[in-house]
Amino acid sequence: MTDRASRTRFVITILVGSFLLFLIQPMVARAALPRLGGAPNVWNSAMLVYQALLLGGYAYAHWLGRFPIRRQAAIHLALLALAVLTLPVRLADLPPPARGWEPLWVPALFAVSIGPVFFLVSAQAPLMQRWFAADPAAGNPYALYAASNLGSFAGLICYPLLVEPLLPLKAQGWGWSAGYALLIALVAACAAVRQGTAGAPGVAVPVGDPILARRVALWLALAAVPSGLMLSTTTFLTTDIFAMPLLWVIPLGLYLLSFSIAFAESRALAGAILRAAPLVVVLAGGMAVSSRSSGTMAQAGAAVALLFVVAVALHARLYALRPEPERLTFFYLVMSAGGALGGVFCALIAPLVFDWVWEHPLLVLAAAALLPRVPLLDWSGIEDIPPRVRQGGVLVVVIAAFALGWSMSGLDPRRDALLVLMAALAIAACGVIVFARRWAFVLVLLAMMVGRGAEETLDRSLSGNRTRSYFGIYTITESARRHERYLTHGTTLHGTQYTDAARRLRPTSYYGPTSGVALALTAAGDRARVGVVGLGTATLACYKRPGQRWTFFEIDPAVVALSRPQHRFTFLDSCAPDAAIRIGDARLELAKTPPGSFDVLVVDAFSSDSIPLHLLTREALAVYGRVLAPDGVLILHISNRYLDLRPVVAGIARAQGWTAWLRDDSGRHSDGFTPSYWVALAPDRARLERLAVRRPDLPWTPLHAPPGDEPWQDDYASILPHIRWDNLLGV
């Protein structure tokens, strides 16, 4: 076989294996949503498992390297064949977690479900590179790592754009299994090419100088920071938009693409990104500490751009520090360990230690300290300046940056947009000037963070007005001028209460008297049984009347605590102190509820800006229908900035033979009210007509599903047709 043909065989094998490896990640996480809800940490927990299994796979590949290639192939192919017994890909049947054990139960679920195949497939990329390098004439094996990450990137992109919209989960599992069979055949073909080549014990292999512990520690840091930054960026995107694979894959895809650029034989693109890195890190990284409730795509775009540039820069530095090919598997093992450390920090340590996503700005500062020193400008003449003068000049620039940052912090980003821009550019220029001094560059970045709201974010943490749990980050703020108190999840408002005594118990925000839910609750009888999925600040409790029986369903114990007077929201204790509160996933809790238990069932559960997917499927509607009384009504809250959920609800209603009417309360409001979309659903039209006739001045509009639109199911759903691109892109 020619060298070209041999190289092609190895490249194809690596591409297929990496494609499968990163196709299975969003596929399994998507399958878990009906069990776990839409919390962003579900994906972070999944990523932690993937990184741990990847580390194990790289360790296994490194261990195999002590044997001749013939024996390596025999062991690896035997294990690949044995893992077929775990296929097709599906979720393990684990019992639900005990309260508070979700951070450990979720990783256990993923590990048990896909552990064997993921472990073995993760090993194939470094193993194939080692087999490729066994022939001294084969060429640079590190270039194959770029091919590996291209395959990974393709798998990630393929899932939300092709696989998820076209195939149900069961078909996805069988399709992946077919790809796995192909991979086994390709690995066997690569083994056949390298039979009898180097790799046996006792063969003298030059290994060069010993690798110092300091160098290994630097490898770990350079791998850990981009990995952690990828997870913290993912948390931002999924918190403020929707917990779906389309958004999961953007940060991970860019992270993988960075390897392809950083490890490519051509250094032109990597070099250009390295030169731009100081500007990007200061301008975009400065926004990493802002907790102002803007939720803009500018912030999202800045976070994504920052991740990509940092990942390319730090991975390029990794490439520059790579060892000789004989130590290739050890190098990848250390890189994988660094990636796992970043995952442990973001998925396990940070949620326990921090009350906000402080891991994000901390990782940005760490990235600034680790950037390769490739200057944007030529400062070759600076060596002619005396050292003390140079140091003094650097100090002056840093002080100037902090002065600019302090001034910028007092500006209104909307009213003073031009001044904010000019100050930001001036601070970025300071960063370029001092880039050669790592400590000074980090301080300039910190100055930009000060200008972008670091003081405000820190103050909210120190004041005790912020709570973090596995399911989200909740912040309490107040407006003395408006006499209002707010609860936000991420950047999304989840409830408002007036602080003055006269209006303290008046329903506000999405729950005003003209909202769909208000109309449904006021129409309920004096003996009505009301179920509410999602507690929030418990604003709806103030629609309760004497004689009614209310039950709240809430997945997050932290939200229950926030609804109590000690946290300054008093709706629940003042209006419905006798209401039952059931903690746990609503679908699971409702499945345990006797049939016909509720006359009105309100679904108002939000994971930041969107109702979790598993509460908007045909299967979910069947659960709701079972617990409704014969003349009961279901009320869904579908307000969302970035998704049009009206066709989704209309589709599942049509599939179940239900009628759906929309109450669009989106007119301009004041006095604490917020525009909202509420949908009333019932198996027969008469129930909705009885609701509508009570307030003909506040009309309901029938919802009709678009022709050919597939209803969402637990194993089949896509957000692509429902994205509000104008809001998402800010146009």
What does this structure look like?
This protein is of the alpha/beta class. It has three domains: 3-197 and 212-370, MFS general substrate transporter like domains (Growth Hormone, Chain: A, Up-down Bundle), CATH 1.20.1250.20; 380-459, no CATH class; 510-729, 3-Layer(aba) Sandwich (Rossmann fold), CATH 3.40.50. Strand 3 and strand 4 form a beta hairpin. The protein has 24 helices and twelve strands. It has an eight-stranded mixed beta sheet, sandwiched between helices.
In percent, how much strand structure appears in the residues?
A: 5-15%
Top CATH class of the largest domain: Mainly Alpha
Query: What class do helices, strands and sheet pairing give?
Result: alpha/beta
CATH topology of the largest domain: Growth Hormone, Chain: A
Please name the fourth-level CATH homologous superfamily of the largest domain. Answer: MFS general substrate transporter like domains
Strands ordered across the widest β-sheet: 7-6-5-8-9-11-10-12
The general outline is: globular
Radius of gyration equals 28 Å
Number of strands: 12
DSSP helical segment count: 24
Query: Major sheet, described briefly?
Result: 8 strands, mixed
Whole-number total of structural domains: 3
Low-confidence stretches at least 5 residues in length (pLDDT < 50)? Answer: 198-207
Terminal CA distance: 56 Å
Average pLDDT confidence is 85
Could you say what the CATH architecture of the largest domain is? Up-down Bundle
